[in-house]
From TrEMBL:
It comes from the Bacteria. Belongs to the glycosyl hydrolase 25 family. This is GH25 family lysozyme. CDD domains: GH25_muramidase. InterPro entries: GH (IPR017853), Glyco_hydro_25 (IPR002053), Glyco_hydro_fam25_subgr (IPR018077), Peptidoglycan-bd-like (IPR002477), PGBD-like_sf (IPR036365), PGBDSf (IPR036366). Residues 196-250, 280-322 form the Peptidoglycan binding-like domain. The keyword Hydrolase applies. It comes from Clostridium neuense. The keyword Hydrolase applies. Gene3D superfamilies: Glycosidases, PGBD-like superfamily/PGBD. Pfam families: Glyco_hydro_25 (PF01183), PG_binding_1 (PF01471).
Length: 325
């Protein structure tokens, strides 16, 4: 699942446009230090929830010891909307020595709002945190790499992979994120955070490639593996992220276009058809695919009493049988 994080620096953000661009969560800044309240924060959270997206809220830390960490945690708690799905300590301030105790003190307090995460980069983890901090999930900031470094944790809930993204609905650059294997937590009502787009994704993967996923709205290792398998079949970048192109492939298949040698080119639909009938998968509906479709039609008629035209054309009834049997 893709997400962005925003603050007053982004000004007014059109969350509905963000949603329409394929993003599933938005993390909004609420406070900084012990005095600053982000004037856009509560509104951003409200708009995120209104658009059916997962809403996170974060505090930019300024503390340098446990006492000031507790003070900042209470300040954040007083100003954070109660309906957020998760809360975050943004730990990147100038400090020295091991800050684990102070960070845990902060996280212990804000975890009464919703599940709490810590945001950090690999360098700060190595300099200032010990393994005790891993009781809380990690939002890792690591740019310019194919996969993030996660010292001490070995996994991550969220990966911030760019600070210079461009997303419809946001003026200028915005931080880009993607959910990770441990993106699995409970909001303030004790409900496991889910997303309707992930539920639909899991249902589609089960239907299209027999993924056998539990439809729970949570991105876990099995779902990521299924996304990667589907992307491979579609000839897409195999990154395990259900982005715009992955959804474009799903939606093209679900449009059930009439597909055949003499019909318009539908690469993703053709790739799925080729996978389904055991043809070579290249996205081009040629004579080899046509012959495999004829074999499929003939076999379905024989085994299930259907009356498909054995013509090598995937029309309405052949599409129906491809999903039915």
């Amino acid at each position: 699942m893709k997400g962005i994080d925003i603050s007053n620096l982004n000004g007014t953000v059109d969350i509905s446009a963000v949603k329409n661009s394929g993003y599933g969560f938005v993390i909004s800044k609420i406070t900084e230090g012990s005095t600053f309240i982000d004037s856009y924060g509560s509104r951003n959270v409200s708009n995120t929830k209104a658009n059916g997206l997962i809403a996170g809220a974060y505090h930019f830390a300024r503390f340098r010891d446990k006492a000031t960490a507790v003070r900042e945690a209470n300040f954040f708690k007083q100003n954070c909307p109660s309906n957020v799905d998760f809360v975050v300590l943004d730990f990147e301030q100038q400090c020295s020595g091991d800050m684990t105790e102070a960070c845990i003190a902060f996280l212990n307090i804000i975890s009464s709002i919703a599940s709490a995460l810590i945001y950090c980069n690999p360098n700060y983890i190595n300099l200032h945190l010990n393994s005790n901090i891993t009781k809380y999930p990690l939002w890792i900031a690591h740019y310019g790499v194919s996969s993030p470094s996660t010292p001490k944790w070995g996994t991550y809930a969220i990966w911030q992979y760019s600070e210079s993204g461009r997303v419809s609905g946001v003026n200028g650059n915005v931080d880009l994120n993607v959910s990770g294997p441990s993106f699995n937590f409970k909001n303030n009502t004790g409900t496991t955070v889910k997303n309707s787009s992930i539920i639909r994704l899991q249902q589609e993967l089960n239907s299209m490639i027999n993924a056998g996923l539990v439809v729970d709205g949570i991105i876990g290792p099995a779902t990521i593996a299924a996304i990667r398998r589907f992307q491979s079949i579609m000839g897409l970048n195999v990154d395990g992220i259900a982005g715009i192109m992955t959804w474009a492939a799903i939606n093209e298949i679900r449009s059930y276009p009439t597909d055949g040698v003499k019909y318009p080119h539908y690469e993703y639909a053709t790739r799925w058809i080729q996978w389904r009938v055991g043809a070579a998968i290249d996205g081009i509906f040629g004579s080899g695919t046509e012959n495999k479709v004829k074999v499929f039609q003939r076999n379905i008629n024989s085994a299930h009493g259907e009356k498909l035209a054995v013509d090598g054309i995937v029309g309405k009834e052949t599409w129906r049988c491809m999903f039915k049997y």
